[in-house]
Amino acid sequence: MEPVGLFYGSTYGMTEKVADKIKKAFGKSAKIDIFNLKDTSVEEMKKYTNLIFGTSAWGIGEMQDDWERFIDNLPEVDFSTRKLALFGLGDQKEYPESFVDGLGTLYCRLPEKSAVVGYWPVEGYDYYFSLAEKDGKFVGLVIDEHHQKDLTDKRVKAWVAQLKKEFV
Ligand SMILES: Cc1cc2nc3c(=O)[nH]c(=O)nc-3n(C[C@H](O)[C@H](O)[C@H](O)COP(=O)(O)O)c2cc1C
Question: Is 14 in the pocket of ligand 1 (CB under 6 A)?
């Protein structure tokens, strides 16, 4: 597998923590480089054929702030030659009508969606509506550290096993 560039935006460090878990789940033989969006550039992103983007959710349809600032750089990246997997954090009990909307908005605003891999089942979550749901699946891994923390490691492990098959 080619090296992976993982780019995340995180306000209270929860998405950052999950980014570290994802890196660990790939194992020592894989090269996974992690970047906090607020300290990186689109030039760094362009160095990777395999990309992972992570965001938390902030209100109806809002991505984490650093993604709001970074998103307009994405058209500079040629996604037709890359694979891209997304993950999102949210809180299904406090925000059941906008659950992981940040993930959904990130997907919507991608200039090229055919690069996306790592779709994830909606089963096992309890919510009314999510912008991140498309054709009966989530557009990426969904993590709720507030109410399903005990499932995070298992979910990360299963998703990474899927990505190992879908990445180049
Ligand atoms: C003001 C506020 C608004 C939020 N809005 C949503 C939301 O609409 N949907 C959701 O699923 N989670 C929402 N959350 C939960 C966060 O996405 C969640 O706490 C996440 O784990 C934070 O990750 P971070 O520390 O990496 O930014 C909200 C949290 C706060 C404090």
Answer: yes
46-63 confidence digits (pLDDT tens): 999 999 999 999 988 999
Which residues neighbour 123 within 8 Å (Cβ) at sequence distance 6 or greater? none
Report CA(163)–ligand 1 centroid distance (Å).
Answer: 25
Spacing, Cα 143 to ligand 1 middle (Å): 11
The superfamily in CATH containing domain 4-166 is Flavodoxin domain (3.40.50.360)
Structural domain boundaries of the chain? 4-166
Q: How far is CA 84 from CA 106, 163, 166, in A?
A: 12, 10, 9
Average pLDDT estimate for 75-103 = 97
Report the candidate in 73, 167, 83, 90 with the shortest Cα–Cα distance to residue 127: 90
pLDDT in the model for residue 59: 82
Model pTM?
A: 0.98
